Amino acid sequence: MLIRGESQAEFDALLAEVRDAYRPATPEEQMLTDQLAEAQWRLNRARRVEAKTINLLVEDTFNYLNEENEADEPVTSDPDQLIAVSFASIPNDAIYRNLQRYVTAIERSHQRCLKNLQYAQEKRRTLPPVPPKPEQVQVATADAPLPEVGFEPQFVPVAPVSAPAYTDRC
Fold this sequence. Notes:
By secondary structure, this protein is mainly alpha-helical. The chain has one domain (8-126). Helices cover 61% and strands 0% of the residues. It has four helices and no strands. The relative contact order is 0.10.
């Protein structure tokens, strides 16, 4: 998850922050919360990469325009105009497309993680609680009979009732 130069402590802080915000209550929610923190980490990284890439391309555009400009007038330093010129530059087209694909894929992953976590938490809140596990069933043996349960029948016949063992119905 982490790449060279990234801080494990910063990632752990983000993970703790996400866990505090969503308070997972089940193993499924714990897994989804961890995935959400990882997706947030990657999204933060993508935003940093996006900013640095645009800065590099704008700087290259600025330097190129200054080299090509033979007049004594300085080239604009307006960042919006430089970004616009950089976007229009054919050599930069593939870089911008790849960058956009990279950021969009990570945004989708983050949204999917968030949606799955919210669904799991809503499902937990709306479903009836899971019944507790039944106690282990006791089995009577010759050495360990089952304990008395204290059941007494409510109907006790006064006289013994006899029934024939076999009745011929033909």
